Amino acid sequence: MQTLSPRNVYWQGLRDALPFMLVTGPFGLVFGVVAAEAGLGLSQVMAFSMTVIAGAAQLTALQLMREGAPLVIVIVTALAVNTRMAMYSASLLPHLGAAPIWQRALIAWLMVDQAYASSILRYERAPVLTTAQKVAYYFGIVTPVLSAWVGGSLAGAVLGEAIPPQIPIAAAVPIAFMALIGPMLRTLAQATAALVSILGALVFSGLPYNLGLLVAALAAMASGALVEVWMERRRRA
Amino acid sequence: MIPEPGTVWLVIALMAVGTFLLRFSFLGLIGARPLPGWLLRLLRYTPMAVIPGLMAPQIFLPPTGASGPNWLLIAAIAVTLAVGIATRHVVLALLVGAGTLTALMLAVAYWV
Question: Does the beta-carbon distance from A101 to B85 stay under 8 Å?
């Protein structure tokens, strides 16, 4: 059997990830437009998208800043959206843990949902790749995914200033978020968490310092986990 | 409300560091030590716990100066969710949802 060089595997990853440009490109565009509308400068939009690289968390931070929430609340709530990255990190460790530290740091910086999902699928499939090949595949995946994200953000930031104020760009944010949520609503536990989150946020919207959302999120996480445990018990019984 | 530039830069910097630490956690810092099961179980629900609640007031509460909720937005959100659940396709849901809202707003502007 012909052994694949890391270069071949890199191109394989790049080809596999091309369809994801249709996801990260438009999302970058939405973030760029919304951020420009909120008053962020071009350099701020680009710094945000290139250093944080997390659409949902960036939109969350933007929304809370617009509402005038205190700094701590903005950071804690927006980072809460990103805690799933720690789970991806744990899940990739058996595959990439042997790579040099600088490569692991680069992998961490560029970690997004699509990169995690595609690489883990490939890593768990035959033929088994070496660590160097796995790293190459990962960088192949992130190349188109993040080019589209950064390009979309740039286009959005530039376009955002040109869009007349009559067009309700603000409405794009809830629609973009709900488009992300829909495909994740697969289990009763996920649906319960979403429902508790909505009800909690509305009920606690009067709490000071935008604390209502954090309270609602904690309640939603707990109810999602409880429903999961309950469903598991029922299945076993 | 437009945030102060200094505040925005601070938020960007803190989020960049915080997000990197979350992503680097196991790969670079913690290593192979496993997290307790109950914590992993809770973490699974964070996106679903934060995002709907973040958007709920904007979707369901009346906009400033309006007497009732924005029913056109609520209808567009319902369509977005339905398409997302049925097709599991994020961009398709986004496009159909945005298209629905635009069509509804044009229809209302024309007929009402």
Answer: no
> Are A131 and A219 within one domain?
no
For A32, the domain range is 6-184
Q: Which of B12, B40, B50, B83 is the best mutation test for A, with the most CBs of A within 10 A? A: B50
The reply to whether A104 falls in a domain is: yes
For A203, nearest residue in chain B (alpha carbons):
B57
What is the tens place of the pLDDT at every residue in A152-190? Answer: 999 999 998 787 766 666 777 888 889 888 988 889 999
Task: Look up residue A104 and give its DSSP letter.
Answer: H
Q: Is residue A72 assigned to a domain?
A: yes
Contacts of A205 in chain B (CB under 8 A): 57, 61
Model pTM? 0.80
Residues A74-104: pLDDT tens digits?
999 999 888 888 878 888 888 898 999 999 9
Is B48–A190 a contact, with Cβ atoms under 8 angstroms apart? yes
- Residue B33, CA distances (Å) to A84, A108, A109, A172, B21 in order: 17, 18, 21, 41, 16
Closest CA to A174 of B109, B1, B2, B53: B53
In a domain, A34, yes or no: yes
Select from B60, B88, B47, B42 the least CA-distant residue to A55: B47
Q: Do B50 and A205 count as a contact with CB atoms less than 8 A apart? A: no
Residues A15 and A41 in one domain: yes
Residues A79 and A179 in one domain: yes
Q: Which pair of tokens denotes residue A201?
A: 């946020």
Q: What pLDDT is stored for residue A196 in this prediction?
A: 97
- Domain co-membership, A173 together with A196: no
Instruction: Please tell me the total count of domains within chain A.
Output: 2
- Indicate if A212 and A146 belong to the same structural domain: no
